[in-house]
Design goal:
The chain has about 550 residues and is an alpha/beta fold. The protein has 24 helices and 17 strands. The longest helix is centred in the middle third of the chain and has 17 residues. It is globular.
Length: about 550
């Protein structure tokens, strides 16, 4: 062993154990912001192969790690400082938790002597920092000795990737991060997800129901996408002759133009009626929650089979045959069992085939939209879709364009990501940065890794500081900001409910000048030119911004009719 190697080992500390364990587990990229109690962690980072992406606000770091995980399928890793830094991340972690995105969060802590709710007056001290994270993470751990770091992170990684996936929290006190260690470098860390196959008797019961069904329908949620179950879903749907509608989180789980595809029009009474008329409704990877149930107006008249990896989801809104399982495993078991049925399943919708029911229903949806003054909105969304390459991933903030996207966006061979889980503002741009950088780590060229972020002017202000991050890391992100002068959807809700809007109008910056001050190319375009502007921006290098000043409105809700 060389003297340099000996010196490196002799100055290793708890921070090195964190970094070494993450590297052994397969991490490549870390998001976060340095902090006083985390200095040992960041010093160790300088001796590693990990790539660090420094955001400007911790909440945006959480969104970026989330976007990285969604785009790549890998675990997102987030480093946080103590107290204010840790707390600032929580809204971003809520989105990851609600949407089951795998993340490992390593937060620093005050020294061991300050733990236990003693008010010693230490900087950043909280009575129980870990408790603050309990509502937005799957599990939480505090490491009290450096030797326990590798096992704690390895166990946390297993938690993160085991369905239901989600963010997990590991906190390490300042003195533990700085403590010299004698153990050799971590070179092997194994983390395998626990499997959750469906119980055989439940699959058998589901098959018995389906064998007698003539009008089966499937609702595909985000769990189908996260499990990589698209092929298994397609096989089951075609075996049953079952129409499929995707939730906003499940957008892209089923081919958009398939003859059995009801697309993602869950906020439509015509689609709701098809779900209600089903004699067996299969809900996979979805809670059948507020939006997917058309705001709880859905009243199924037939049997309900609900498949989800999260036990708390099962029967949370409707009595059902609840099957706790990973979506892919359950659909594969179901598909195999259905294939053994003599004569298969014959779909008959009151004398019509399922393809005719789907076509007629989508025609009714279009007729409903045609009856409203929505030409501008429909053209705007179509122009964006036409400009976006088929395989490009898109990241949508909570804004009117995204609400349209939940229903009308054809993800094609790309991926549609939105903040529909927790519904907080500011997701779009930082998650897109994480996604674009992650795709490059996965081997994509900058041109292949380019993604689209979509925000409103209100939500854009939550993450405007990340223009500096995008510029610093030359992230191939095109950011579309739809500027309507305020919180557009809240304005619409308030006017519709009270006849006037209050506190929805916003003073906002010159977004183009502001982006250019960061060295990021930007321009204003008219709504009718958005497609051409995006196509040109996609061909550029590094980050860029397109701003459209227009007032969009939503299609009329059907759950109030």
């Amino acid at each position: 062993m060389s003297q340099q190697d000996q010196d490196t080992i002799s100055r290793r500390n708890g921070g090195d154990l964190v970094i070494e364990t993450l590297e052994a587990l397969g991490a490549h990229t870390v998001f976060g912001i340095p902090g006083q109690h985390a200095l040992g962690l960041f010093d160790a980072l300088s001796r590693s192969r990990l790539h660090f992406v420094s955001s400007r606000v911790e909440n945006n770091s959480a969104f970026a790690a989330d976007g990285y995980a969604r785009a790549t399928g890998e675990v997102g890793v987030l480093f946080l400082s103590t107290g204010p830094g840790a707390l600032t991340s929580l809204a971003g972690l809520q989105e990851a938790y609600a949407t089951s995105v795998p993340m490992v969060v390593v937060a620093s802590q005050i020294p061991l002597d300050g733990l236990g709710a003693r008010r010693k007056g230490m900087l950043h001290q909280l009575d129980d920092q870990k408790a603050s994270a309990a509502n937005v993470t799957k599990s939480q751990r505090t490491v009290h000795h450096a030797s326990g770091i590798p096992s704690a992170i390895q166990d946390a990684w297993v938690d993160a990737i085991t369905v239901p996936q989600g963010p997990v929290w590991v906190e390490v006190p300042q003195d533990v991060l700085l403590a010299p260690v004698l153990v050799p470098p971590v070179i092997d860390a194994l983390a395998e997800a626990y499997e959750h196959p469906p119980r055989v008797e439940l699959i058998d019961e589901a098959v018995r129901w389906l064998a007698k069904a003539s009008r089966p329908v499937i609702v595909a949620g985000g769990g189908v996408r996260r499990a990589g179950a698209k092929d298994a879903l397609l096989a089951v749907a075609e075996s049953l002759g079952a129409p499929v509608v995707c939730s906003p989180g499940g957008n892209g789980a089923f081919p958009w133009n398939h003859p059995l595809s009801l697309q993602s029009w869950v906020e439509d009474r015509h689609v709701t009626e098809v779900l209600e008329d089903a004699d067996v409704l299969i809900v996979v990877g979805s809670a059948l929650g507020e939006v997917t149930s058309n705001y709880f107006t859905l009243e199924p008249r037939g049997h309900l089979i609900q498949i989800d990896a999260e036990p708390r989801v099962l029967e949370s809104n409707r009595p059902a045959l609840g099957i706790r399982a990973d979506a892919k495993a359950a659909l594969e078991y179901l598909g195999e069992a259905l294939g053994q049925l003599e004569g298969g399943v014959g779909a008959d919708w009151h004398g019509q085939g399922p393809e005719k029911v789907v076509a007629d229903t989508l025609a009714k949806v279009m007729e409903r939209l045609d009856s409203q003054d929505l030409a501008k909105e429909r053209t705007f969304m179509a122009d964006i879709r036409n400009a976006v390459p088929d395989d490009m991933q898109t990241f949508w903030d909570m804004t009117i364009s995204a609400y349209w996207g939940w229903s009308c966006w054809d993800a094609k061979s790309g991926e549609f990501h939105s903040a529909q889980g927790a519904g907080g503002l500011g997701f779009g741009f930082p998650s897109a940065i994480g996604g674009a950088l992650g795709l490059q780590v996965a081997g994509k060229t900058p041109a292949q890794a380019r993604v689209l972020a979509v925000s409103g002017d209100g939500s854009a202000m939550y993450s405007i500081a990340e223009l500096a991050t995008a510029k610093q890391h030359n992230a191939p992100v095109t950011w579309l900001i739809v500027d309507d002068g305020g919180y557009g959807i809240l304005r619409e809700y308030m006017v519709g409910t009270f006849g006037k809007a209050t506190a929805t109008e916003l003073a906002r910056p010159d977004f183009v000048a502001l982006a250019e001050s960061f060295g990021v190319p930007a321009r204003y375009v008219e709504p009718e030119n958005v497609g051409a502007a995006l196509a040109e921006s996609f061909a550029a290098e590094g980050p860029n911004v397109v701003v459209v000043q227009t007032l969009l409105k939503m299609f009329a809700p059907t759950h109030l009719e």
